[in-house]
Design goal:
Blueprint lengths: L7 H12 L8 E2 L1 H8 L5 H20 L5 E7 L8 E10 L4 H67 L5 H35 L9 E2 L12 H11 L1 H21 L5 E11 L2 E11 L7 H42 L5 H19 L5 H35 L9
Parallel strand pairs: 1-4
Antiparallel strand pairs: 2-3, 3-5, 5-6
Helix pairs in contact: 1-3, 2-4, 3-4, 4-5, 4-7, 4-10, 6-8, 7-8, 8-10, 9-10
């Protein structure tokens, strides 16, 4: 079963570029918006439509009916004897059924083209979703790194004043200043990583300026994972790559049948008019092209090999799709267990630890080393929370891709 074809994306792709400029740079780009833009405004819609037209066009070329031949001829013009006029129409007749086999192959090619178009569109959806999540995570880490740098700069200024008043050792103030400088460098690295991560997303959604993108809030993912039999059955039924492989195997089988019939002679019927010496007569004939020198052996051997390849690729696709579906489900379950602690209070608890360390340090109840360790623990916890949320989302996306579902439904 082939999934529903998103051909509306192709039509929207012709209209949205006209209004794409209406979306200002300050409008948040959600995950769903990014995926829709990538499959409409971006080059994916034209790519999917082009691949579909190319596949169908090649098959149509082979399956077209042969044109009739009309001959108008005059003989003995200028001679002392009366001239003869001929009007002959020759119509090729496919008595071998070769053309019907090629027409059947055309039907399989249309099915393959539709499935290929779906696979191309879904591939773009998932690439865009991954790029959006990576950009979101990079933004979150960059924002936290900037806040961490500001906090360390404030503490360095505080220790500098205390060192001037003799309350702390000058070495302590210098150490805090070093930590502030390192935090600012880390913030700059995080900011650069966020800029680079956004470049791929901008290209996928049809933008040439990554700075014009403002990301929206992260989506909330579903909590319930399907069971393994459901995942495997859905993947076998809906995965577009399996639909492509099945249609390709059918197309190869019909092409082999067509070329096998090419060893039989082609037949044409000829009929027309002849005018000679004042008499009008009818003509009729049968035209044969006997395969005396060419038994079509090369094409028969080629299509036999192509049929073997197509069936082998179908078997490989079936194995790959089922294996990837099992692995994607197992990976999603593992991430569910590993990120169960990353709830909304996770970051708040990390902030509470760092705030308590700040207060204790200002009151002289904590050392500089304890303060720095608390802030590093906070940074690690924040990073783990962000990456855990992103990884959980990516494994859900991988599972949906493994069963041939749309990335837009991952929530």
């Amino acid at each position: 079963m082939i999934p529903r074809v998103p051909f509306s994306a192709v039509a929207l792709g012709l209209l949205l570029p006209l209004v794409a400029g209406a979306q200002g740079a300050d409008v948040p780009l959600t995950l769903a918006d990014a995926v829709r833009r990538a499959t409409t405004v971006g080059p994916a819609a034209a790519l999917a439509a082009g691949r579909r037209a190319s596949i169908v066009g090649r098959a149509r070329t082979d399956a077209q009916w042969a044109n009739p031949t009309l001959e108008l001829r005059r003989e003995n013009e200028g001679a002392p004897i009366p001239y003869d006029d001929f009007a002959t129409l020759t119509l090729p007749i496919d008595i071998t059924g070769r053309r019907f086999a090629l027409r059947s192959a055309l039907g399989a090619a249309r099915t393959r083209a539709v499935a290929d178009s779906i696979a191309t569109t879904l591939g773009t959806e998932y690439a865009t979703a991954v790029a959006w999540w990576e950009s979101w995570a990079a933004d979150q880490l960059a924002q936290f790194a900037a806040a961490q740098a500001d906090r360390f700069t404030e503490l360095a200024r505080y220790d500098s004043l205390r060192a001037a008043e003799g309350e702390v050792a000058e070495a302590t103030a210098m150490r805090m200043q070093l930590e502030a400088d390192r935090a600012r460098f880390t913030a700059a690295q995080a900011r650069a990583a966020a800029i680079n991560a956004r470049a791929l997303l901008a290209a996928l959604v049809g933008r040439d300026d990554p700075a014009s993108l403002v990301l929206g809030e992260a989506v909330v993912l579903a909590d319930v994972l399907p069971d393994e039999p459901t995942v495997i059955a859905t993947a076998r039924r809906d995965h577009p790559l399996l639909a492509v492989a099945r249609a390709a195997a059918r197309e190869a089988e019909r092409r082999h049948a067509a070329e096998s019939r090419g060893a039989l002679p082609d037949v044409g019927l000829s009929g027309g008019y002849k005018g000679t010496a004042g008499y009008s007569t009818a003509t009729f004939g049968v035209i044969l092209t006997p395969p005396l020198l060419n038994l079509n052996g090369g094409n028969r051997e080629r299509t036999a090999g192509e049929e073997l390849i197509a069936n082998a690729e179908l078997r490989a696709a079936e194995l790959r799709v089922v294996a990837e579906a099992r692995a994607a489900l197992a990976s999603a379950r593992a991430l569910e267990d590993g990120t169960a602690a990353f709830d909304k209070g996770f970051a708040a608890r990390a902030d509470l630890v760092a705030s308590a360390a700040d207060a204790a340090y200002r009151e002289g109840a904590a050392t500089l080393t304890e303060l720095l360790e608390a802030h590093r623990a906070r940074a690690d916890a924040r990073a783990a929370g962000v990456r855990g949320q992103m990884d959980r989302a990516l494994t859900r996306l991988a599972l949906r891709r493994a069963i041939g579902a749309s990335a837009l439904e991952a929530k």
